[in-house]
Amino acid sequence: MALETSEIRRLIAGHKLRDMLFDVLGLIIMLLLLFILGALFIKLAIDGWDKLGLDFFQNYPSRRAARAGILPAWVGSLLVMLVTALAAVPVGVAAGVWLEEYAPKNWFTEVVEINVTNLAGVPSIIYGLLGLGLLVHGLGLGPSVVAAGLTLAMMILPVVVVATREAIRSVPQTIREAAYGLGSTRWQVTRDHVLPYSVAGILTGVIIGLSRAIGETAPLITIGAVAFIAFLPPAPIDASFPFVNFDWLSTPFTVMPIQMFNWVSRPDPAFQQTAAAAGVVLVALTLLMNGTAIYLRYRARKRIKW
């Protein structure tokens, strides 16, 4: 009996040692990757620091590096991301809720689940070709802001659906059973209990998808984004009734990754500095989006009482 006890203790100690080694290895790899990312960002910031100023955000692109700015690029990026979020988030969250809470367990649901999972790994250029054929030519939208936003929405839609399903699965079944026991309907359980408890995970998936979309170049080039543009789309808000203007949806556009690609491809070294400054702004926007997601997730979890 004592021999069996000592053998069990040795097995437990061996498993604990392997777990500790795995934790240390994972920590080292994470710190190494963070160091590489930090070094690259610092190098980017050093190269483009002199260009970062108010004029850089207010100027249009120019053939002279000293006058070049990112005004149409960052405005175009914000408008495209607005369309992407408005199209992908409601549809993705609704699809995730339906698959997890309402869909019957049959062959059709299994086919949908398999396709959603597979679409999350499709290269972005494929979505660009889909947007070109379906939106630009099929629906006649042309190379416009709405076509770009819908193309990126199709690209991140599987990510939002999968994140929504995983967040809903994390809600304990006892919460549903307690709500049903008090006479709640399925929709009341989903609206008042499941979604509030899963909103933190849903927000995380949404921001991950939007962070991926804001840096994409291939699908937007495929649908015909302009590399050099010297005007702004009409403002979405108008001073006269009905105070909302939709003309900006059909205008040509450019985004920050495409503007950076245009500058990097030029032989003048001064444009490399301008592209580095634009890269700093793009990374800052991505970090701001992720920081907002962390804050909203923290607030959502703080309001939840288990």
From TrEMBL:
Residue ranges of domain ABC transmembrane type-1 in the record: 74-293
Localisation per UniProt entry: Cell inner membrane; Cell membrane
Top-level taxon of the source organism: Bacteria
Alphabetic keyword roster: Cell membrane, Membrane, Transmembrane, Transmembrane helix, Transport
InterPro entries in alphabetical order: MetI-like, MetI-like_sf, Phosphate_PstA
Membrane topology designation: Multi-pass membrane protein
Transmembrane regions listed in the UniProt entry: 21-46, 66-99, 119-139, 145-163, 194-214, 276-296
PANTHER family, per database record: PHOSPHATE TRANSPORT SYSTEM PERMEASE PROTEIN PSTA, PHOSPHATE TRANSPORT SYSTEM PERMEASE PROTEIN PSTA-RELATED
Family: Belongs to the binding-protein-dependent transport system permease family. CysTW subfamily.
Designated name of the protein: Phosphate transport system permease protein PstA
